[in-house]
Amino acid sequence: PRSTLFPYTTLFRSPSQKELFDIANTMPLQDGALLVLAYLTGGRINEILPKRFILRQKTYKLTNVKTNWKEEINYPGIMKKDITHRQLEKDGETKQYLVVFMLNEKNRKVHTKDLPIRIDKEKELVEILQHYLDTKQDNDVLFPFSDVTAWHKLKRYGFHPHQLRHFRTTHLITIYKLRRDLVIKYMGWSDDRQLRNYEHLFWTDIASEL
User: Fold this and answer.
1) What is the pLDDT of residues 129-181, one digit of tens each?
2) Do 35 and 154 touch, CB atoms closer than 8 A?
3) Integer angstrom CA distances of residue 10 from 14, 175, 200
4) Which of 138, 140, 147 lies closest to 44, judged by CA?
């Protein structure tokens, strides 16, 4: 197991999907599935795991005063039944997807999201997740533990859970050429301010397009 963060994140590039697969494939099945699902959804760890309370915030326009409060939601975390197989017909071709229904933690208006994962384009990563899903019943919570436990599981292999969100954002732009407005929707943001903080484009990304 790696004990330090991926060097690629600070040198030339984010880790490739193949490198992520190689790491996930050496992990215990549950831990590897956690890494894969966190990456593929770009989800915050609290959108994947059980969560009892969520922090809400409101700014009053007249006074510009912000009010914070905890709202009890008793979110069970992602369950097996929240991940479904779907297909879409386009240009005479049938495309297969996993669609993940999950919490959208920090968007003030949209509190849940459905995220499509293209199976043929992410086949190896999807297979790790599917192997884990095959061990579960529909109403089973996939990862019934705390964010601290998740952090320790991923740290052993050189990752902080939030890193995977950064990697996914970057890959949606550099690999899939997804429009920026669709990246914003995929990641669950309400505007483009967070996108500037999450995309990590290196000189190699620019050079590959020249």
Assistant:
1) 999 999 999 999 999 999 999 999 999 998 888 889 888 988 998 888 888 88
2) yes
3) 8, 19, 10
4) 147
**CB neighbour list of residue 160: distance below 8 Å, 6 or more residues apart:** 5, 151, 154
CB atoms within 10 A of CB 67: 9
pLDDT of amino acid 170: 85
- Two structure tokens written together for 132: 């884990």
Per-residue CA distances from 129 to 44, 56, 118 (Å): 17, 31, 13
Q: Helix or strand or coil: residue 90?
A: strand
Amino acid at 48: I
Distance separating alpha carbons of residues 36 and 41, to the nearest angstrom: 8
- Coil vs helix vs strand at 84: strand
- pTM > 0.70: yes
- pLDDT 10s digits, 78-133: 999 999 999 998 788 899 999 999 998 877 777 899 999 999 999 999 999 999 99
Distance from chain centroid for Cα 208? 25
Name the strand (E) or helix (H) holding 55: strand 51-60
